[in-house]
Amino acid sequence: MNVKGPTDEEIRNVITPLMLSGAKMLDRHCPVCGSPLFEKDGKVFCPVCEYRAKNKRDSIADRNVDVEAALWAKLAELASALPSDVNALEKHLSAMEKIIELILKYRALEGGE
Ligand SMILES: [Zn+2]
């Protein structure tokens, strides 16, 4: 069994629609995943590797959202429990400031794609 080859799901979602769209299936195979290579608009490509790369990018983006949600939750927690002691308050606020900086950094990463 070739575990690297396209799965049934990939054949259904990637290869079949591509064939229907008029892309030409070549008699060469992708050295990475074993899928047939396709040619469209003069370009040879592996649709399965492109699909997998895209899924990977999407799951990384999902993780960023989770991290951002966790940061927001922590920020809300800190904001709802501000200490009355001035020194403690200062530490508290600088922690909140760092969280806000992190959130902004994550947003910049997401927007930079
Ligand atoms: Zn491939």
Explain the overall architecture:
By secondary structure, the chain is of the alpha+beta class. The protein has two domains: 8-49, no CATH class; 51-111. It has helices at residues 8-20, 47-79, 86-111; strands at residues 24-29, 36-40, 43-45. A three-stranded antiparallel beta sheet has the order 1-2-3, with no helix packed on it. A hairpin with a 6-residue loop joins strand 1 and strand 2 (36-40). Helix 2 (47-79) runs antiparallel to helix 3 (86-111). It binds zinc ion (ZN). The site of zinc ion has 7 residues, from helix 2.
Which tags fit this structure?
single chain; 113 residues; alpha+beta; 2 domains; 3-stranded antiparallel beta sheet; 3 helices; 64% helix; binds zinc ion
Number of helices: 3
Which class do the helix and strand fractions yield? alpha+beta
- How much of the sequence lies in strands comes to 5-15%
Bound molecules: zinc ion
Provide the gyration radius in Å: 24 Å
Rough outline: rod-shaped
Order of helices and strands: HEEEHH
Structural topology:
Layout: H1 8-20, E1 24-29, E2 36-40, E3 43-45, H2 47-79, H3 86-111
Antiparallel strand pairs: 1-2, 2-3
Helix pairs in contact: 2-3
The structure holds zinc ion.
Task: Write a concise synopsis of the structure shown.
With 113 residues, the protein is α+β, with helices and mostly antiparallel strands.
